[in-house]
Amino acid sequence: MDRIRQDPNLEVCPDYASDAFAQTRALLENDQVNQEQAVQMLRNIWEANNNAAKARWQVQREEDRRRQEDHRLRNEEEQADRERLQIEEAEAALKEDRKKNKFKYTPIIVPNEPTVIPSSYATRKLDKGEYVELWYFTNAGLEEA
């Protein structure tokens, strides 16, 4: 079935009583059919064809709408698939990068309490490699220093 290019609802019935349709009317006229009846028959034929074209037009529009909706849904599904694939690829790349660079992704723990630094006397002794009593690292030793 060929596509209908323009809406048959907008078409106007031709004037079959005009001189342009004289030959067509003459084919229908005889002893039982006069000119007015021939014009009416031509109008009826045109209306029947136009009504059939209107019905085909409506079916064609519904098919076009259905195709457009299917196309839109397919495009949305493809877009969702592409986005999902991109997310999966990004996650895989991140996982691979984490596997290669473990220290890069190690969380940094920030202590809530201030860092306790021993006295400079104890630190110097440690630097020299000398023995330092454990008392210098206790709360009492840190307070006295």
* Beta-strand share of residues: under 5%
Overall pLDDT? 90
Report the count of strand segments: 0
Separation, N- and C-terminal Cα atoms: 101 Å
How many helices in DSSP terms?
4
Spell out the key features of this protein.
mainly alpha
Question: What does this molecule look like?
Answer:
- By secondary structure, this protein is mainly α.
- It is built from 4 helices and no strands.
- The chain has helices spanning 22-28, 35-100, 120-128, 139-144.
- 2% of the residues are buried.
- It starts with 21 loop residues before the first helix and ends with a helix.
- Helix content is 61%, strand content 0%.
Helix and strand arrangement:
Layout: H1 22-28, H2 35-100, H3 120-128, H4 139-144
In short:
The protein is an all-alpha fold.
